[in-house]
Amino acid sequence: MKKLTFRNMLDNLRSSVAGVADAVTGANKFDVEPDENVKAQEFAFAEVSRSGFPQDPCCLALEPVQRILAIGTRQGSIRLLGRPGVDYYLRPGGSAGLATESSDREALLGSSSNGGNSHSNAVLQIIFLVNEGTFVAVHANNWLHLWSFKGSKRPDIIQSLEFQKETLTVCHIPYRSKWLFAGTDKGNVHVVQIDAFVLSGYIINWNKAMELSSRSHPGRVIHLSDCPSDAGKLLIGFDSGLITLWDLKNKGADVRFQITDTSLCSISWHHDGKQFVSSHADGTLAVWNPKVPHKATSHTAPHARRSKDDAGIAIVQVEWKKQKGGNEALLLFSGGVAFSQENSSIAGGSAKNSSAKTTKARPQTMSIVQGKSTTVLEMEHPIVAFLCVPSAPHLTEGCEHEAVIVLLENDLVAIDLAAPGYPLFENPYSMDLHEPPAFSCYYVADCPSDIIPTLYTAGAKHKKSTFTDKEWPIDGGMWGSAATPYSDLLLTCHSEGTIRFWDVSSASLQHLDRLKINRIFERSKKSAGKSPLPAVTAAPADAVATQDLTSSTVAATSEQPSETPPAVTDGPIEIQLISLDPECRCLAVGCVGGLVILYMWNRQEISSEIAVLDLTPAVSLVPVPAAEGVTALSEESERGGRRLQPRVKSGLHKRAAGYQPVLVCYTDIKSASTSWSPNEKLHEQQASTQSQDSGTQDNGALPSASLVTSLAISSKHGLLAIGSDTGLIVVDIIQKHCVMNLATPDLYGSEDPFQRGTRSSPKHEKAPPHSPPVQTATADGVSAVPAAVAGTVSSSPRPSVNAEKAELVRSRSSSSSSLDFIASEAVLCLKFADTYGRRADVNIGPCLWVGTELGSVLVLAFQLPSSSFSASVASSFDPSQPQATHRLSQPVIGVPTGTLFRYNNSGAVVCIALLDAHGALLNDTASTASSSANASTVPVQPASLQSHDVSNGRSGARPSEASAGSGIPALTSLLADARHILVLCMERQIRTFVLPSQALYQKYKLHSDPSNSLGHLTILKATVENVKENACIFCYLSSGRVTIYSLPSLRPLLDVPLSPANDLRLCRTLSFGRHAGALFMASKSELQKLTFSAETASCFNQPNGELFIASREQQWVTESTRPSAVAPAVGFLKSLMGAATQAANTLSASQQVEKDREELFGEAAGKGSKALARHVAGSAMEQAKISSNMANSEIGRAKMLALERGEKLGELDEATERMRQQAEAFAGNAHQLASKYKDKKWYQL
């Protein structure tokens, strides 16, 4: 017989209480496991698109027939741009420079951690093979890659060539030629056969290109081009200033040009081939005539200097074009303007103006000289490169150049050359993602359908109208048809206090609208002499767990005097984090300094006034000893200090359609002694002096700046939860009233497992009990509410805590001996849900789940007015609605439930989610609640808080919890499983529980993963999203990998590498969405869209359109527009070939030139040295070889089968012949026998 003890009695009592709850809601474990329909085969990693401006651009190229623009970067990536919506991101990977699947993924996504510091793989030059669907990329690591974008597949590397002894500097491919000229740093020029990608034996050595009398090395080759009038002449430019016109036929220098006192920057031919212009580092331009080699025709500085001592600004690039309509030349060049001129306002330019000063590295001005007219355009950023866009491809007599495309360091602009004043084209690509810099992203997949059209309409009203009326000059390619069947919305937070909205439903990025925080605040008057609010860099919300939050907290706070108005400011308000409700109807924005702004969605323009709440964050009521050398501010000093929070504009103001501000919460009213003041040390001295003069002695610590660490919105109940580094604030956004204001220790109540104190204190004294609480009437009797709740001040004694609650806390909490003297505890995770807040709850109710940085999860329950659950936030604001009367008149009451989840060595809480019994997310939306309320009413249970419909998990889900007009539960609800699943994700483990029993269902610890070789892994970011009506948890680990687990069984579904370990940018900007989608900032200016769904990945096989169009040339080459579509060329071996034969006369000029080049660089020149360059076949070539081998094997097998069939046919012929012979013999014998007995009678036989 079991011995009866007091402990056994308590255990029996606890088990009986749990048994009663289990009898109603079921056993701890599910009798029938949740249907997890997701399978590992349904998940696959794929890169959907790359949007934004290429980071660190360094070169620019144009395909004139296909109208494709290429941009190369210092990271080695290439962006191909066509018409809006045609966009490709390319990057070679691997040590050999080949774009394999695994290496390309690591190179693509791993580049974000480099920060652009490593430029060994920079793209030096991109050269298109006109109308052939291929281009050559020249890299700084001496690789030549031949890319092909012809066909419907993604562009891929066909072949590669690596130079091993010399460094590549510049390359050139003549028009419609299969030979490439490659210049090196040693001054040599090599010839490469493009089809086979092998070196030719033809070499132009540097010592033959220079004068025999010269003793100095000419330097590296920086320019290569063929003469427009004679394809047998190659112009070679060296950086020392030497220019050589090389005769390819005679293998010698024809003419040499030299400017000794300055270095060479660039060269451009005139279209007639009779002269060319060169730009130099001293800001001069020189025009040369091949017939006058020793002296330049003209050598001038286009922009005058103030004095001879002023250093000239280099003209980095020059282009010499000719307009078809007249004889005036069109000269364009970048640079050449002195620093004093570039810093001043330059008249005559119609491009963007900027006050930023230029540097010596790159020019910031562009000059257009046409006849006697000179126009200087000042760009907003330094110029990287530019090129002219012809109205038609290469013509023999020149052509109109309709635009010039200028690549800046942070922008891409196009200038209309045909219009007066040179206006800009409107850029259709979303390349201003980084202006101002973005530091966080919020991805909303499958958003409501009315969000994007309304934002687009509102944003269209703010667009500039100073652009030209013409369309963007780059219109190559075809639009891709791949797009998600739902709408995807992206929100980006920028450094100047701006939130921008983007449409990411398709592969391209489209800007919708922007939201400026400063617009709702007043501006300071310059005459008042008030110092502006300094721009404070916002700390990312993801990095809160790694920050030092052990600063001292104040012992007591006093009410801020209402007569002291907040200060106004002109400075930007930095955004920390944002939060959207599931319906995207409420947007909460947390800013630096504890400022929280609530926006409500409205499709109409209205005039409204913003409500303001001053909410001083609650702090622990435990006396905290002050740190050494720190003196607390007195009450007089607090009141005398100027509050630096911005002031909201009062009165009615017109609000544009979209997200409109309705509420501003000041959760941190700062004094002049805090870090928000521009003169921090001076104000500290003033505050210390005031404290000493007043004679006050306070051992408290200085108030620290409040940090908004988490936000959560419940549009269904009209509640806003604000988590900070010191506590929690809950605001009723309908009544504009603070419901709860608790410090983190007060959330625990008397069951706080930690001893609150400061680590810097020399003595650790035991903390006295908390201040007396306030007795608040709730649905289940009298509950203890701490005195820190806003609007309540009481000195009544605290009632005793329920024994069951204390037992639950003791059973769930771990040992607190290792976590003594906690200075502060931030609230990192908040989640609203209608679920079971206590273990003994029978019905569900509105709850708030709170996760802290110490790994604790607590639950708060709320009691709402009787009909509020059926009213949405929008209807509650309208007094004409019947349910609004109850919601606006009756208060919302919130109390801690006493439920606590905490485990040792688990880290901070990263994510909290609630699922229904079928494994789908609980949908906390107002529309679901409203539809449920129309069908049923839920009775108020006296033993718990008010219950709500349990069918919140799925759209169009199960029947309601109770029948209409009756308090008796419906039969269908009794048969349904009313239990919920709790998902807790901490830094080192994931756990799932069954509610209301709170029994552990499954757990997964990272350190127990046998495939993990890094040891201590942590989960940096986690999100629970629905995938095909089943919830899955997406985790981003500190190792740079993304893991996906099914819920609630935590079965691994996918594990892929995403980035290098400890990638800070990706951790801050990574955002998961529904349907297994994700977004993150791959660089400071580029956005990468991903998918982990195999179905979505298959839809985006051709996401960004088609680049090459076979019929594109027919749009340019027509008999009515121009007689010839070939470049001008003259055969330079005509004298050697003698009289042309009849067959040779049929060749065109370009074909004749190519034939002559074949004779010079082909077999007659020999093969290049294998030690000089190494050839590597690309992945496409390897696949072609594999396909060829497979085809050969199939052909051989078919041949063998054909031979066997032939042998069998031969045997059949022989058998047929034998049968024929036997038939003939039989016929002969029969004939003889018939002849023998023909005349005999029967009796003669």
Describe this structure as you would to a colleague.
- Among the domains are: about 435-460 and about 485-520, no CATH class; about 575-615 and about 650-670 and about 705-750 and about 825-835 and about 850-860.
- The chain is about 15% helix and about 30% strand.
- It is flat and about 110 Å long.
- With about 1250 residues, it is α+β, with helices and mostly antiparallel strands.
- The strands form 16 sheets. A five-stranded antiparallel sheet has the order 6-7-8-9-61.
- This is V-SNARE coiled-coil homology domain-containing protein.
- Belongs to the WD repeat L(2)GL family.
- GO terms for molecular function: GTPase activator activity; myosin II binding; syntaxin binding.
- It is found in: Cell membrane; Cytoplasm.
- InterPro entries: Lethal2_giant, LLGL2, V_SNARE_CC, WD40/YVTN_repeat-like_dom_sf, WD40_repeat_dom_sf, WD40_rpt.
